[in-house]
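Let us begin with a simple case.
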Amino acid sequence: MRKLFCTLALLVGCTIMAWAGKVDRPKLVVGIVVDQMRWDYLHYYYEQYGEGGLKRLLNDGFSCDNTMISYVPTVTAIGHSCVYTGSVPAFTGIAGNNFMLNGRNVTSVTDTTVYAVGSDKENKDGKCSPRNLLANTIGDQLKIATDFKAKVIGVALKDRASILPAGHAADAAYWWDTKAGHFITSNYYMEQLPRWMDNFNRIHHTEPGFDIKTSTKGVTMTFKMAEEVITRERLGKHEQTDMIAVSISSTDAIGHAYSTRGKENHDVYMQLDKDLTHFLRTLDQEVGRGNYLLFLTADHGAVHNGNFLNSHKLPGGGFSGRETSAGLDKYLGQKFGKEGKYIKTVMDCRFYLDHDFLKANGIDAQAVKKEAIKWLKQDPQFAFVVDYEDVNNQSVPQFLRERIINGYHRLRSGDFMIVLQGSHMHGTVGPDYKGTSHGTWNPDDSHIPLIFMGWHVKQGSTSTPTYMTDIAATVCAMLHIQMPDCCIGNAIQEVWK
């Protein structure tokens, strides 16, 4: 009897020790990034949202109402990488949607060493991977913390919006190939698509060339794919915590075409709310309400259309990099006595000198940079023109100086940049132009929504200043895992109970 008692006591003790030693984590982490979602869309359309989508997040979750982006330029690739790394271009190397790398113009996810899976192998839209990302992500840290047992998957229509959030060690990243008319991946992740995905693609295939990204159907397709991934990969049903990173890309394409107001923008956010409602119900059914930790944010916002602003007596306008570059080349050719292309390219207000041309003609790059900046400063639409390598010695407000430095990667960002006046955007605003863009430091572009909901999240909100870089730090703190290796953010402690 005594032996039996001792055995039972030992078993109970082992069970208690095992229970006590188990780290408290949710079954699934869900990240949602809505491309080009201004913070004020949460309230501008609030009365038209249903009860189960964005209203549910606001009512049941915790909203950080003063979340800002702490770098420029504010564009898609940088935003998605920042959300999941908690870092900025200075460390991540993601200097824009496109940037110069080893003398070549590349996208943020260009990788010529891989090939497409699910499409023609030589399809350049499939030659993608996270190798240009120099930092790791929430998902990578979750992998490390669970001895790589956690499943991590990215889903989006845009390649960069799927690949960069998922990280380096992800099990998969899926994105839409317009040429193929369905979702694809690359052999960085796998040699062939799962059978369930082949079936999904057959059912939801579109005609090759039909750009679903510019349609509200793109929102629905993305959520359907995310739901399929959760169900087929059994995310949230494993011993270890899993993660899915979802990005909604159609909101950006429609915003670029039709701006921040009007029927088209209204319709895409109504569709987002409707599909989000269904997605949350799927999570409740598949994972269990309270068993998943979800956050929703944006990669950047958008400036109101200049013509729209001007029609209401408000300042606004646009900037053409192509026209400015041509004028600058002409001026520099006259100044240095040699016609040619002094400016290799302009990306997101970042100017790259053609160093090969300058070297071949014995022209001093620093002298060219100085003259270029002097010429650009004559244009009243530019608030500042900044030499990347000499930011601290220029008369720029401290907060802006910090954002410029954060957004600068010395091998990828170019030589100097312009800062537009308030409510000005990239792109020429002709009399018939009705679209929008983004990329500036202004609140229109840099003030983003951030809502947490679900596992251990309390209901409420804060107007305390928070930053995009804080998202990764917060999620990792809640999961009790190390934050990403280049993370510069701080955990938002008010979020959890």
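The second case is a distinct protein. As before, the sequence precedes its structure tokens.
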Amino acid sequence: MRAIRLTSPRKHAATATALTVAAAALTVAAATPAAAISTYNSAPAPERTEVGALVVTYDHDEDATTPDRVDWFCSGTMIDRDTFLTAAHCTTDWPAGARFHVSLEQDVRAALDAAAREHPGDPHAVAAAVAVEGTVHNHPAYPGPSSDTRDISVVEVPARKAAERWDFTPATLPTAGQLDALGPRGLDGADLTVAGYGTQEAQRGPGGHTHPGGGVRMKAPTTFNALNKAWVRVAMTAPQGNGGACYGDSGGPNFAEIDGERLLVGTTITGDSPCYATNVAYRLDTPGARAFLAPYTDLP
């Protein structure tokens, strides 16, 4: 989902279907085909192998002893061989003992359901079957003011284990101030794409709006909307040929083709609650974002 509002955080899409592994067979039997991003102007993204899902094992029954649940909750991107970039609101406010993992599976929902059938009642085994466990580092000043919430975090994973599981090319980050140098005029002509595992846009039904789907890596085109000190805003309006992000896409990438190079220019944080109009991404070319990332990856 998304964080700050601006409107609503695009964070815990999976909380509505969080998998209690002891009851996995029932969960799987009731499952429907999953999709992600918007249903309009979007497509599967098997080629975006650097884009992954944040998988969390955590305690839900409040006995504070052992985790009893496991599911995916947000999206993110590998920015080098051992660093997964996501949003701080995805990796904070969890019960004590929560453990974080990264999966680069194309269909993480199906992979989790299959692992739950194979390892009933064992959330750690389920997570290990589909993901690599890592160590979270949140921005120390999160949450900051609305002008710059510092909503950024990384999960460091063992590079060897990740390479054994998946073949991927890490995303390329922008140079310092690159979006400012381009300005609105330059960004207006850029090819922009959002990707992630999130749910679909709001659909009306009995009881109000729902956001179905989620758990499959998808992509959609967007167009430039506005540039702020810490944010790049993109339009995801269907009539313009755009798609867009929704709940569960938090931390996921916003790519821009600039001078023939695909750059990871921002990470999804927030937007309009029905997921039809605007995606708000945390810029990665700013001094604050670069200062946070510098200890974990080589910056261009």
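Helices lie at 24-29, 88-91, 108-118, 123-130, 159-165, 178-188, 287-293. The chain has a mean pLDDT of 86.
Keep these points in mind for the review questions at the end of the chapter.
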